[in-house]
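Human: If only I could read backbone structure tokens as easily as an amino acid sequence. Take your time, and here it is.
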Amino acid sequence: MDYLEMISCLEEYYEAAGFADFFNQVLVGMSEEEVKALFNRTFGNNDEK
């Protein structure tokens, strides 16, 4: 899964949980590595190769 797919999944997850505003504010300051770490913490380590 690439970086943009991770962002999309996280955004959908947080919107469904009612935290869309929080997620959008936090995402602005996150690096690609931080987004990947958040994705792995949220959904488990899903490194697809």
Q: What stands out?
A: The chain has one domain: 3-43. Helices lie at 3-16, 20-28, 32-43.
